[in-house]
Amino acid sequence: MVNFHNGTKLIDASTISLNDWNTNHVSDSMQGRISDDIQKYGFIGEIFIQKYNERLKKNNVIIDGEHRYLSLLKQGEKTIPAIILDVDDNKAKVLTLRLNLERGESKPDKITDILKSISEDIDLGYLQAETGIPINELEVLTQIKFDEIEQDESKKQSTEKSVTCPFCQKDFKIFK
Fold it and tell me: What is the pTM of this model?
């Protein structure tokens, strides 16, 4: 049976500490996008915090959600929605690593499909403002053509696709 951690609590922001092992780097531009998302759509989700970190000798150490937490602080929030996990220091580090890795990677063909489907109805300038993707990249992404390449049975786990750059007409192979 799955253990659902649905005990979200509002925690005084001043009692929360950053960890010193976070593997996830966010550029200033991406941090701005996180803040912008929170302002536009509200805070979706919660952060995960370790109840007490023995090595740091601190309560409420962030396991996951550092960049969202920093955005909330910058916006003047005094309380932060969090799930408190009573785990040891090693488990906190493992969770940080897992949660960062489990977010996965974006599939270029899916990004292109989404952008193509909405760019017919939505101005690229608006898409740039909403997604933070530079306009020149949006122009390229909405023009890329993906063609399926047939695989033999022994390679069935990965699907190979051919991608043609709309500007240089060079073909590239990607795997998903």
Answer: 0.69
